[in-house]
User: Which sequence fits this backbone?
């Protein structure tokens, strides 16, 4: 994924390892998600790691996750909703872990980077980091809750519990949709994962996440055309990049209906283009009226 440093990836690996182990048994319980109720029956690997029970962990879910839309969503739509939220929190957590590990508080311990990373993630898993880095603990707890929930949703739909590295489940694309992308020599799955990342980044309202999935130079057009050459320049242009109209266009776009050509995927009337490069699909153009 564009923008990840090797350090962040290393922290992310430790995060996934810690979240894959928890108490091996728990009683089933019910969770309301996106207007639908699901029975959660966690089945964890046998390796135990001290921490909350699954039901206690679920208390860290976003308060509004139970709210449903005006229609009855399909199971696929519910899963997409939770996966999007998980992608957002996971990337925010990796960013905060990297900042925390590089802070003076931890660097003054004299430990090497790998040891510091393990100490931080271990204290987060047990909840011991609450008094030292409460904001980071909050992110970690929310990530753990969403990660647990998305595993159970995938399992209930007979999908792989761990999907691709993109973090999104493989879609069931209609042959005619795949044909549109293949006609431009695009891998439909890679295009789909890039589309989901861009949607999630805009949804978050977090310019740091948008910077992770942007292709540089990023073209921002309007009254004046500007080429954003790096993360810092994009952060400085947050108001334009996160324009409410732009975010609305992205939110209402669907992978199956976007216009596709050799340049990439056009969202709306060209307000946003998702373009390919060697690293995959990412944000390539923003047009602000």
Assistant:
């Amino acid at each position: 994924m564009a923008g990840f440093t090797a350090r962040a990836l290393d922290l992310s690996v430790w995060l996934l390892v810690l979240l894959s182990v928890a108490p091996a048994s728990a009683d089933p319980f019910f969770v309301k998600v996106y207007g639908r109720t699901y029975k959660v029956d966690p089945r964890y690997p046998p390796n135990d790691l001290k921490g909350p029970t699954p039901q206690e962990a679920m208390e860290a879910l976003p308060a509004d996750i139970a709210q449903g839309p005006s229609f009855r969503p399909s199971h696929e739509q519910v899963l997409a909703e939770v996966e999007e939220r998980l992608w957002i929190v996971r990337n925010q957590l990796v960013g905060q872990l990297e900042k925390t590990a590089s802070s003076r508080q931890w660097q003054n311990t004299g430990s090497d980077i790998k040891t510091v990373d393990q100490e931080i993630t271990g204290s987060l898993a047990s909840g011991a980091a609450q008094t030292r880095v409460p904001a980071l603990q909050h992110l970690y707890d929310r990530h753990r809750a969403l990660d647990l929930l998305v595993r159970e949703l995938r399992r209930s739909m007979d999908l792989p519990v761990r999907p691709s590295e993109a973090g999104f489940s493989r879609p069931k694309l209609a042959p005619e949709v795949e044909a549109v992308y293949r006609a431009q020599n695009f891998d439909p799955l890679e295009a789909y994962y890039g589309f989901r990342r861009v949607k999630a980044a805009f949804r978050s309202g977090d310019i740091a996440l948008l910077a992770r999935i942007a292709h540089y130079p990023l073209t921002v057009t309007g009254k004046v055309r500007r080429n954003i050459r790096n993360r810092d320049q994009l952060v400085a242009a947050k108001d334009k990049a996160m324009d409410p109209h732009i975010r609305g266009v992205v939110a209402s776009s669907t992978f199956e209906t976007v216009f596709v050509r050799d340049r990439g995927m056009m969202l709306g009337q060209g307000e946003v283009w998702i373009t390919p490069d060697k690293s995959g699909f990412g944000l390539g153009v923003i047009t602000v009226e």
Remarks:
- The chain is about 50% helix and 15% strand.
- The first helix runs from residue 6 to 19.
- Strands lie at 29-33, 36-40, 214-221, 226-228, 259-261, 264-267, 272-277, 280-287.
